[in-house]
Amino acid sequence: MQKYFYTENNIKVPAVTTKQMMEIDRIAMEETGPNLYQMMENAGRNLAITIMEMVAEVIDPSIVILGGTGGNGGGGICAARHLLNRNYNVTLAITDGTKLNDVPKKQFEVYINTGGKIVENLDEIKADIIVDAIIGYSLTDSPKRRAMQFIEWANKQTAKKISLDVPSGIDATSGENYGEYFHTDSTLTLALPKTGLTEEKCGKLLLGDIGIPKVVYEKISIEYRSPFKNRFVVELNYK
């Protein structure tokens, strides 16, 4: 049975499974565009905008972005660069900078060339907001080693928290968690919401436009009406 979320204007937004989202990404990258770098850039910019709105009332906020080595991490790195370009106090931590995939690696290089900071010891920093860009929608097992350390550290902090796409540690399709997961206040999910997103585990739910055209959804028989109108990020209701 198809699951839906709804915008404030009652536009019905279909939810997708991990398998469906992987196919959407494949079609976009191999057949129609946009390519992965473009989608990652769109995701990162939307995340940066959302973070700026979250800290609007905080004087000189300290922003900590926790990134993994895949596409989700690349979006987080991109957001860090956009925030740095706007003179925000942003610090990036990566689970393993030596294992970044090709496109996230390029984002990382640009961030470093911009003068971005990297932190190894999270206990040394204070955070007003913590950003979870560790794993994303592809989780199939419990987070490993450094990723789990990031999650455990974040869950002990009192800072505001936001997850990119799916809270790390949550199965995007089922909503189940494999042990510890990132306890977030809000989630910026990308392109379409995932079937496993719940209010209990994801908090306030936002949807970010990463530029995927309607024709991509039509290719896998998803009935799609753009929920974005004149915006790139919209809030979704769970029912």
Automatic annotation (TrEMBL):
Single GO cellular component annotation? P-body
Enzyme Commission (EC) number: 5.1.99.6
Keywords (A to Z) from UniProt: Isomerase
Q: Where is the YjeF N-terminal domain?
A: 21-218
> What's a Pfam family in this record?
YjeF_N
Q: Does the keyword Isomerase apply?
A: yes
Q: Name one GO biological process term.
A: P-body assembly
For this protein, the record's InterPro entries field holds:
YjeF_N_dom, YjeF_N_dom_sf
Give start-end ranges for the coiled-coil region(s). none
Q: Which GO terms describe its molecular function?
A: mRNA binding; NAD(P)HX epimerase activity
Q: Which PANTHER family match?
A: ENHANCER OF MRNA-DECAPPING PROTEIN 3
Protein name per Swiss-Prot or TrEMBL: NAD(P)H-hydrate epimerase
| Source organism (scientific name) | hydrothermal vent metagenome
Q: What is the lineage of its organism?
A: unclassified sequences, metagenomes, ecological metagenomes
